[in-house]
Design a protein that fits this description.
The protein has 424 residues and is an alpha+beta fold. It is built from eleven helices and eleven strands.
Length: 424
C-alpha cells in the first residue's frame, strides 16, 4: 500500500496535467479558428460593400452607353471614381449594413482619397495620421480614387468572442484540480489518522501490559508461603496491586473522557471556584514525584482576582494534566513553575512552565490534536495516549477560555491558559 498510493497520486497528477495541456491546446485552436472566421467575415463584408457602392454609383450617374463597351476593369475603375459623388452618410450606412450582415458590430472609419492621398470624403472620426497603414483596407483597387476602411478592433477582440468558452474551461479545470487536491488531502488525512490510531493502540497495549504484568508478579508473590508469613511483605505487594490498579483506572478514565469528548458529552457543573486553592491541591499531588527526582516546584500565585465560574472536576483535571506533562517531559531534575496573574480586569491567566525537552514549531501547531504525540510509533520513553492536551483544550474552550503554548527545543515549554473571571 505504501508504494501503490504514491504511484496512484503520480498517475492521477500526470493525467490531470495532460488534460490541462489538451484543454489549453483546444483553446489555442479555438482562437485560431475565430481569427480565421473573423478574417473571412471581413473579406465577405468588403466584397459586399464593393458591390453596394458600385450599384449606388450607377444609380447616381445612371446608365451610360459610353462605358457599356468598356472592359470589366475599366468599368470598375470608372464606377469607383464616381463613388466620390455619393454622400458620406450613405457610404457610412452601406458599410455598416454589410458589416452587420456578416456579424461584425464594431465601430469603423472610412475615407475616400485621391492618388495624392488627399482626403475627398471621410467619416467624422477619420484621421490618416491616427491609423497605421498596416490596418487600412483598400476597398477600391486600382484607380484614381481609393476608399480606405478601418475597423476598430478592441484589444483582445478575438478572446472576447471566446470568453464564455474560456471561462467555462477555467472553471471546470479549477473544479477538477480542487476535487483532486481535496481527494489527495483526504487520503493523506485518513492515512495519518490510521497511523495515529496504530500508535494509540501500541501505546495503550504497552500502558495496560505493564501494570498487568506487575499485578501478575505481585499476585504470584502473594501465593508464596514466605510472603504469606510476613505481614510487611503482604502489605508491600498488596500496595503494589492497589497502585497499579489505580493507574489502570486512570488510563481507562482518560479513554472514557476522550470518548465523551468525541460525542460532545462534556457536561459542565459551573460554580464559583477559587483557582489558587485548586492549583495548590494539584501542586501538592505532583510535588512528590518532583521531589523524588530532586526537582523543584515554584508557585507564583500573584493574581488578585481568582474566583472563576468553573467546573471544579474538569478544571482540576486540566491543571493536573498540564503539571503531569511538565514533569514527564522535563529532564532528570525537573523545574516546574506555576504563575497566575490578571493581565486585564476581565480575565485570569495561568502559566505552567517547565525546563523540559521543548517542542518544534510543527509539534506546537499539532500538540492539541487528539492522539497526537511528539514521539510517534511504539516508543514509550514518555508514557501516554496523546489524549491529555486534547482534553485540556476542550475543557478550556468549554469555559470560553484560550490556551496556547510557547516552546523552544531543548529549553522547555510554557502553557498559557486565559479564562474569564466570574463577573465577566
Amino acid at each position: 500500500m505504501k508504494k501503490v498510493f504514491p504511484a496512484i497520486v503520480i498517475f492521477i497528477s500526470l493525467s490531470l496535467l495532460g488534460l490541462m495541456y489538451f484543454q489549453f491546446s483546444w483553446i489555442n485552436n479555438a482562437v485560431i479558428v475565430q481569427k480565421t472566421k473573423y478574417q473571412n467575415q471581413v473579406e465577405n463584408s468588403i466584397n459586399d460593400i464593393r458591390k453596394d457602392l458600385l450599384n449606388r454609383a450607377i444609380e447616381v450617374y445612371g446608365f451610360n452607353p459610353d462605358y457599356a463597351n468598356l472592359t470589366d476593369d475599366a468599368a470598375g475603375n470608372f464606377f469607383w471614381q464616381n463613388v466620390t459623388a455619393i454622400d458620406p452618410n450613405e457610404i457610412n450606412s452601406i458599410i455598416r449594413t454589410q458589416l452587420k450582415k456578416n456579424d461584425i458590430t464594431l465601430d469603423f472609419e472610412f475615407a475616400v482619397v485621391n492618388q495624392l492621398d488627399f482626403v475627398l470624403k471621410r467619416s467624422p472620426g477619420y484621421s490618416k495620421y491616427d491609423i497605421p497603414e498596416s490596418i487600412k483596407r483598400n476597398l477600391s483597387g486600382d484607380g484614381s480614387f481609393i476608399l480606405y476602411l478601418y475597423i476598430k478592433e478592441p484589444t483582445h477582440f478575438i478572446w472576447g468572442r471566446l470568453w464564455w468558452t474560456i471561462a467555462a474551461s477555467i472553471l471546470f479545470s479549477i473544479i477538477i484540480i480542487t476535487a483532486f487536491a481535496l481527494t489527495v488531502g483526504t487520503i493523506f488525512r485518513q492515512k495519518k489518522i490510521s497511523e495515529i490510531k496504530t500508535d494509540f493502540i501500541n501505546n495503550m497495549t504497552h500502558e495496560f501490559k505493564t501494570p498487568l504484568a506487575t499485578i501478575s508478579l505481585a499476585v504470584g508473590a502473594l501465593n508464596t508461603k514466605k510472603v504469606q508469613e510476613d505481614p510487611a511483605k503482604l502489605s508491600y505487594f498488596a500496595g503494589i496491586i492497589r497502585d497499579e490498579n489505580t493507574r489502570m483506572n486512570k488510563q481507562v478514565e482518560k479513554i472514557l473522557q476522550a470518548a465523551k469528548l468525541e460525542s460532545n458529552e462534556l457536561d459542565l457543573n459551573l460554580q464559583p471556584v477559587n483557582v489558587h486553592e485548586e492549583i495548590t491541591k494539584a501542586a501538592n499531588s505532583v510535588s512528590l514525584s518532583i521531589n523524588e527526582r530532586n526537582g523543584s516546584l515554584i508557585q507564583k500565585l500573584h493574581a488578585k482576582h481568582v474566583v472563576l465560574n468553573l467546573d471544579e472536576v474538569h478544571f482540576t483535571n486540566l491543571i493536573n494534566n498540564l503539571l503531569d506533562n511538565a514533569v514527564k517531559y522535563s529532564g532528570e531534575r525537573p523545574v516546574v513553575e506555576i504563575e497566575t496573574s490578571n493581565p486585564t480586569p476581565r480575565n485570569l491567566q495561568i502559566k505552567i512552565k517547565d525546563n523540559g525537552i521543548g517542542m518544534s514549531k510543527d509539534t506546537q501547531s499539532r500538540i492539541f490534536e487528539k492522539f497526537y504525540r511528539a514521539h510517534t510509533g511504539n516508543i514509550h520513553n514518555v508514557k501516554g495516549f496523546g489524549l491529555g492536551l486534547s482534553y485540556v483544550k476542550t475543557v478550556v474552550t468549554a469555559h470560553h477560555g484560550k490556551i496556547k503554548v510557547e516552546s523552544v527545543p531543548g529549553k522547555g515549554s510554557t502553557f498559557i491558559v486565559d479564562l474569564p473571571l466570574l463577573n465577566s
